[in-house]
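Structural biology now treats backbone shape like a language. To illustrate, our science desk offers a sequence and the tokens encoding its fold:
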Amino acid sequence: MEAIILSIGDELVLGQTVDTNSAWLSAQLARLGIGTRYHQTVADDQGSIAAAITAALGRVPLLIVSGGLGPTEDDLTRQALADALAVPLVLHAPSVDRIAGFFRRRGRAMPQRNRVQAMHPQGTAIIANQCGTAPGIQARVDGTGLYVVPGVPSEMRAMFGTSIFPDIRGAEVSRQVILTTKINTFGLGESDVAERLGALMARDRNPTVGTTVAGSVVSVRVRCEGTQAAAAADLESTVDAVARCLGPCIYGRDETTLQQAVVDLMARRAVTIATAESCTGGLVGEMLTDVPGASAVYVGGWVTYTDAMKSNQLGVAETLLSRHGAVSQPVARRMAAAAREQSGADFALALTGIAGPGGDTPDKPVGTVWIALAWRNDGAAESDTDAAVFSLGGDRDQVRQRAARCALQMLRLHVLGESWEALPSGVRQPMPEGAS
């Protein structure tokens, strides 16, 4: 069984609002074994909406249209549906009473313009809206089950759960299911990930395996069709195969973030982390504290943006700064060691770099970032440290975001006892003389 999903609204076509309804609906349908043939976004134009509905009817067993059921002049979905069905609009009196009651409960009289929301194409059925004023519309046309729902996400989801889902579940649909998962990686480029996955990405296999990139995170998407038991087993078998190909680059599945993976790992190991940041301006600390429960592992940090702050707060010697520059291995190491020792944490991360657009030099271009990690050296007063330099592409925000993720992955790999091969272009260099 397949479906088509239409989303109506100028704000969607213009990119002013992201269409989350189509993604949510597709995920719900997939759980029932219903694949989505396509999503289409249509402007608030009566003729365009009618044409999109007409083109979809009869092509698939299920058509869901969201949006355009409001009371204003640009809400044209019900009129367009009437055009597509070649029938007039008629008034549904019980809906008028229900909409009036909605306003009455809020101490207001129903505006006359809301009366149009009780109109529906002749021969269609009304779907009650328990969360708002716009009823939905239901019909069966040319073998297609048609559902028109409000565009407000909360109203759409409630209507789907109470009215559409039971209809679809009770229909004669395939017993096949579609199961999906997403495996998140950081450190390798998309082409590198694809090369390692090799034959797993063949388009004629089930499960199918593909990749997407967002914010320098490469996610491996796995999609499997079959009976519930068989699809679940095949999905996990492919996930295991992906893990063998990508190893420690993988930090989590589905909606797990890198910072969530780091916090969870450190909580399990009962270890703590402090931060000392320059070019990232506290971004690593912010990412860690975005995770609920981060207080168990993150003790705090320093934002030492200027050389004076690096010296005053972290004891970075002025001779190091003058000899090697703020963006250097010795300074990064000293920042990390001082942050660990002053905080008492088990680990500390330090970042110093050039996020741009200015401040670069011939030997230190924009995107140059030194990241150092310090850890407790049992039996010694000083910390052990390691550092790597990264050449990160993108604009100022992208450099900062990528640097923060590099630091978190560096920490994660060290705690796991893994090598740093999973870091993007991280280069270790020997300490320069006189840099201790």
About this structure: The chain is about 35% helix and 25% strand. The mean pLDDT is 93. The first strand starts at residue 2 and ends at 8. The radius of gyration is 28 Å.
